[in-house]
Design a protein that fits this description.
Strand order of the largest sheet: 1-2-3-4-5-6-7
Shape: globular
Radius of gyration: 17 Å
Bound molecules: pyridoxal-5'-phosphate
Order of helices and strands: HEHEHEHEHEHEHEH
Strand content: 15-25%
Amino acid sequence: MAFSISENFHRIREKTAAAAKGRTVRIIAVSKTQPPENLEEAFSAGAETFGENRIQEAIPKIQTFSHLNAEWHFIGHLQTNKVRDAVRYFSFIQSVDSIRLMQIIEKEAEKAGKEMPVLLELNLAAEVTKHGMKPDQVGEALDLSLTLRRVKVRGLMVIPPFLEDPEAVRPYFRELREIRDRHSKDFPSLTELSMGMSHDYEVAVEEGAT
Ligand SMILES: *Cc1c(COP(=O)(O)O)cnc(C)c1O
């Protein structure tokens, strides 16, 4: 039997709370490819933050639901010619995968007169099919962020290799947290760790997903 979106959301919230052991963890409802009815149901169930990975698909949804008090996070690979729209329509860009992209976001955020919170996306398994910085590029990106007025780096994001067994993914989540911990002495604003998907979010939360 299939569960409804609201039943799923409540179950995920309970399991997340159990894995978080007292920490507060924010659930991103990934709404890409989902029709409007499903977003409404998720919102009614308590989802407040939605993730989209394509600008063209996202803009009409964001406009349709502008009356809801929802937050929109961009979670896909952002092409440089779409940065202007991303900055205007989204409150968070979770998937900054290059230093060049950071610089373009800064330029567009400056034009829009807006602060742009972002996460640096890492490609920890060096998968050629995935976007993301290498761990040794994080220091350079963070140093650059000190010179930027509008881009605010709040943390790190990872999409690990897809492995059936969530335990097999645990080392990637742990590595992301360790990279964050190493840099957080110099960059205390690095508070967010965005990690975990439908099949492995409990492990991600145990490893410190925020
Ligand atoms: C599609 C997507 C998800 C959702 O994946 P599920 O397995 O359905 O949870 C999560 N994060 C990112 C970045 C995605 O693109």
